């Protein structure tokens, strides 16, 4: 690790929580260069929904590489891209009667967020955006402008303007946030212009695993329709099957105007981002939003394979079965340890909120988890929520083992806290 400490920038972060050198990985397991094994409850921050080195996807990638196919294509027409587009349309869009055009952006999620914001402002000829407290959308300037985290915003070094932050969902007790936005839009003295778009995650992942209520999502869609505002859903982390269905918004029966995908859309951890837009919104001029690596051919190959795997392995059903296990385990075995613990989640993204036990508690728990062979991260205000986000393909055996490690680690910390009080 001396090499990294001496030569790599101080900006590195995850390696500080997991200070070992990893060498191999398979499925939900990661291995260090010295042979230690870890269960992965992090899944590449949501980029590895299908696990590490999935055999089916790997075979498709290897076959493509071995046949001297196009490896870099900008936005040229290629066979790999066409096959992905056709597969995505047939397996994802058509069954849901969704009519979207596809835009391939620069290969990171934040670039697709930038594209969505640019397009919304261009279409509506308005500068403002409504975003939500607790939301995270990326680390480039436009994406940071709609991200609420104070320390992240300060790192921009300049004012981040033209965004109004609204309390998320029903998180503010007694406040009807839909009605609040309606008051802003109707009141000639609100001081806030009508926005071009409202951007949200239907499950705030980095915000602490906050799941939006279905009724609230439907009312938000109606509000956007009534006031001619575009609805942008950022499905970068909680899309691609993380909540069960492919899109996280399907449970609410709503259709966003723009959808942002990245992370697990490639299926294999390869860089890729994708913007879905209703056809009438596609007002771009050629090259108006581009990027050298918007045509990641290997990602197209892996993404097509991921869609096939999703169907053949009945992955949505797998997620719902594992969700049922997690829901019961967390409620019965974790929440019972201390009445101050709060449990939130859906599908295969869950949060254990230990904020009421003290700011350092989540850090201490995840540190013990790592020492006992589990990779798990924190989220939420002051990083006080333990975030469970394993690959969707994780075995039930390792899912249970990982949960037992959390339980034992949490119990040790709570016992220590109790001893201090005595």
Automatic annotation (TrEMBL):
GO BP annotation list: ectoine biosynthetic process
Cited Pfam families: Aminotran_3
Superkingdom field: Bacteria
UniProt xrefs under PROSITE patterns: AA_TRANSFER_CLASS_3 (PS00600)
CDD domains membership: OAT_like (cd00610)
Keyword Transferase among UniProt keywords: yes
Obligatory cofactor(s): pyridoxal 5'-phosphate
Record-stated family: Belongs to the class-III pyridoxal-phosphate-dependent aminotransferase family.
Molecular functions per Gene Ontology: diaminobutyrate-2-oxoglutarate transaminase activity; diaminobutyrate-pyruvate transaminase activity; pyridoxal phosphate binding
Protein name: Diaminobutyrate--2-oxoglutarate transaminase
Organism from which the protein derives: Paenibacillus glacialis
């Amino acid at each position: 690790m001396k090499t990294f400490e001496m030569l790599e920038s101080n900006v590195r972060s995850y390696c500080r929580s997991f200070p070992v050198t990893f060498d191999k990985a398979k499925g939900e397991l990661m291995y260090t260069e010295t042979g230690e094994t870890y269960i992965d409850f992090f899944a590449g921050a949501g980029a590895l929904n299908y696990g590490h080195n999935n055999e089916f996807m790997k075979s498709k990638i290897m076959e493509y590489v071995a046949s001297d196919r196009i490896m870099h294509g900008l936005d040229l027409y290629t066979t790999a891209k066409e096959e992905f587009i056709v597969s995505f349309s047939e397996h994802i869009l058509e069954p849901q009667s969704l009519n979207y055009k596809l835009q391939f952006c620069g290969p990171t999620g934040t670039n697709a967020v930038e594209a969505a914001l640019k397009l919304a402002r261009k279409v509506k000829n308005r500068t403002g955006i409504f975003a939500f407290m607790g939301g995270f959308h990326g680390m480039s300037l436009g994406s940071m402008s709609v991200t609420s985290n104070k320390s992240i915003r300060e790192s921009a070094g300049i004012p981040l303007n033209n965004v109004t932050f609204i309390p998320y969902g029903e998180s503010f007790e007694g406040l009807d946030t839909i009605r609040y936005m309606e008051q802003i839009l109707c009141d000639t003295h609100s001081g806030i212009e009508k926005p071009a778009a409202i951007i949200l995650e239907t499950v705030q992942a980095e915000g602490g695993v906050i799941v939006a209520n279905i009724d609230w999502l439907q009312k938000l869609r109606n509000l956007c329709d009534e006031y001619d505002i575009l609805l942008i859903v950022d499905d970068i982390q909680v899309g691609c099957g993380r909540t069960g269905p492919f899109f996280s918004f399907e449970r609410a029966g709503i259709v966003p105007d723009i959808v942002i995908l990245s992370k697990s859309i490639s299926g294999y951890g390869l860089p890729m981002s994708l913007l879905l837009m209703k056809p009438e919104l596609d007002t771009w001029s050629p090259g108006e939003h581009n990027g050298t690596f918007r045509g990641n051919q290997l990602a197209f190959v892996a993404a097509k394979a991921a869609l096939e795997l999703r169907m053949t392995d009945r992955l949505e059903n797998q997620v719902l079965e594992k969700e049922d296990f997690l829901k019961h385990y967390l409620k019965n075995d974790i929440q019972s340890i201390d009445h101050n613990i709060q449990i939130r989640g859906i599908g295969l993204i869950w949060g254990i909120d230990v904020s009421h036990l003290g700011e350092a508690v989540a850090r201490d728990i995840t540190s013990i988890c790592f020492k006992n062979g589990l990779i798990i991260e924190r989220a939420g205000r002051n990083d006080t929520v333990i975030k469970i986000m394993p690959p969707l393909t994780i075995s039930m055996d390792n899912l249970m083992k990982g949960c037992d490690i959390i339980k034992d680690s949490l119990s040790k910390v709570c016992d220590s806290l109790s001893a201090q009080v005595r």
